[in-house]
C-alpha cells in the first residue's frame, strides 16, 4: 500500500520516536516544518490506523500511536505488492533484473549477502 506525502511524514515521526506518540505530539513535530491543522494530523493518524499501518492505544482521553511495522518491513511489503501485480514469472524476473540494475554496489552486496543467507551458499 502506497502512502501519500503527509502519511510518510507522519510515519517518519512515529518511526523516529522512542515511544508511542499522541496526535498532539505528532502535530507539534510536523508544525515545526509546515503549516498544518491539528485535525488534519488526527485524520491522517485515524486513516493509518484503519489501514493497519499504525496501532492505536487509548491513554485516558487521548490515543497513542505506534507503527505496526518497521520502515524496512513496510518497504519490503510495498515491493512484494508491486511484484505480486506482475502477471507472469518472466515479467517478474525482468522487473527484478531491471530493479537490480539501478542499485549501488553497496546495495548489490547487501542483496547478494541476503540471497546467500537464504540459499545457504557463499558467493565471492
Architecture overview:
The mean pLDDT is 92. It is built from 6 helices and 3 strands, in the order αβααββααα. The protein is elongated, with a radius of gyration of 19 Å. The chain has 2 domains: 5-67, Winged helix-like DNA-binding domain superfamily/Winged helix DNA-binding domain (Arc Repressor Mutant, subunit A), CATH 1.10.10; 71-119, no CATH class. Strand 2 and strand 3 (62-67) form a beta hairpin. Helix 2 (23-31) crosses helix 3. It has helices at residues 5-16, 23-31, 38-50, 71-84, 89-100, 105-119, and strands spanning 21-22, 54-59, 62-67. It is mainly alpha-helical and 124 residues long. It has a 3-stranded antiparallel β-sheet.
CATH architecture descriptor of the largest domain: Orthogonal Bundle
CATH topology of the largest domain: Arc Repressor Mutant, subunit A
Total tally of structural domains: 2
* Strand content bin: 5-15%
Shape: elongated
Order of helices and strands: HEHHEEHHH
Average pLDDT: 92
**What is the spatial order of strands in the main beta sheet?**
1-3-2
Question: Could you name the CATH class of the largest domain?
Answer: Mainly Alpha
State the secondary-structure class: mainly alpha
**What's the β-strand tally?**
3
Largest sheet: 3 strands, antiparallel
Amino acid at each position: 500500500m502506497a502512502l501519500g506525502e503527509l502519511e510518510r511524514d507522519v510515519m517518519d515521526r512515529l518511526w523516529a520516536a522512542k515511544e508511542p506518540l499522541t496526535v498532539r505530539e505528532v502535530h507539534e513535530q510536523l508544525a515545526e516544518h509546515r503549516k498544518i491543522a491539528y485535525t488534519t494530523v488526527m485524520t491522517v493518524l485515524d486513516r493509518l490506523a484503519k489501514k493497519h499501518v499504525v496501532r492505536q492505544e487509548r491513554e485516558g482521553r487521548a490515543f497513542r500511536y505506534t507503527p505496526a511495522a518497521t520502515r524496512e518491513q513496510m518497504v519490503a511489503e510495498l515491493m512484494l505488492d508491486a511484484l505480486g501485480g506482475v502477471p507472469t514469472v518472466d515479467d517478474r524476473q525482468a522487473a527484478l533484473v531491471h530493479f537490480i540494475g539501478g542499485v549501488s554496489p553497496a546495495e548489490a552486496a547487501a542483496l547478494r549477502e541476503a540471497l546467500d543467507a537464504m540459499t545457504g551458499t557463499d558467493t565471492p
